[in-house]
Predict the 3D structure of the following.
Amino acid sequence: MLSSNRQGAVLALAGFAAFASHDALIKLLGGGYAIFQIAFFSVLFGFPIMMMMLIRDGARDNLRPHHPWWVALRTGLGIVTGFGAFYAFTTLPLTQVYAILFSQPLIITALSVPMLGERVGPRRWAAVVLGLIGVMVVLRPGATELGWGHVAALTSGITGSFVSIIMRRIGSEERSIVMILYPMMGNLIVMGAIMPFVYRPMPIGDLGLVAALSVLGFCGMLGVLMGYQRAAASTVAPMQYSQILWAVLFGALFFDEWPEAATLLGAGIIIASGLYIAMREEDSAVTVARPVSTGRTLRGDTAFGIRVGDILRRRAGRDGPLSSDRE
C-alpha cells in the first residue's frame, strides 16, 4: 500500500493531468469560438457543482465577505487572470504558455516583501532572478516575434500572483465558498455582457466539451486538494510541473506542436528556480508565512479557484509552530 506522501503525490498528479486536459480543451475550442463565449459557458456549467458545495457547506454564516474591497480586487484580478490564460492557450503552443505561467512562484516571492512584510534572503532572490532569466529564454525578445498571446500569458502570470498574495492575506478570515463564488459571479457578468457581440451558436457536441471544462476543473481542484491533505506541500507542489509533459504530449498529438529547444531550456530554468523556492519555504528554518507553498496552485481563475492555505495552516497548528527564521 502506498504511503500517505505517495498517495498525495499520485492524487496531485491526477489533478494536474485533469487541469492539463482542461487547458487543451480550451485550445481546441478556441479555434472556433471567442474566449469570452467559452469562459461564459464553462462558468455557467460550473454553477451546479457550486450549488452542491453550498448545500454541503455546514457554516451558518452568510455569503457577505469580511473584506469586501480585497474580495472585489481579487475578483477583478481573477477575471483578468482567467482571460489572459484562456487567450494565451488559444494562441500559443501549450508548452510556451506553461513555461511562462510557471514563473508565478518567483513573482509571488517578490511580491511577498511589500505586500506581506516578508523577508526574502539572498539565495531566494537569486532564484527569482534566475527564474526571470528563464522567462527571457522562453520569450527570446528580439529573436522571436512577440504577440498578444505572450502579453496575455505574462499578464495572467502577474495578476495571478497578486491573486495568490491577496488570498494569503485574507484567506484565514474569508470562507472558501466566498472566495470561489464572487469570481464566478464576476466572470459570468463580464463575459455575459460581451456575449452578444461574439456569440456563435454551438452544436450539442461543443456544448458537451464546454461542460467537460467545468468537470475537469472540478476534478483537478479535488485531486490537488486531496493531495495536499495527504502529503507535505514540498511533495505536492512540484507535481504541478508535470503539466509541461502533458503539454508536450497534447501539443504533438492534437495540435502539431513541437516545443523548441529554447522553450524547454527556459522551462527547465524556471522549474528549477520554483522548486528551490518551494523547498526553502518548506524547510523548518523558514517562516510560517510561506507565501508560495500556502497559496493557490498555479491556475488561472475559470470556474473554480483553489486554496490550500487553510489546510496547511491547520496542519501547522496541529504539528506545532514553525520557526520564524527566514533566509
User: Anything to note?
Assistant: The chain has a mean pLDDT of 82. The two ends are 37 Å apart (CA to CA). Residues 4-319 form one domain. The chain has one domain: 4-319.
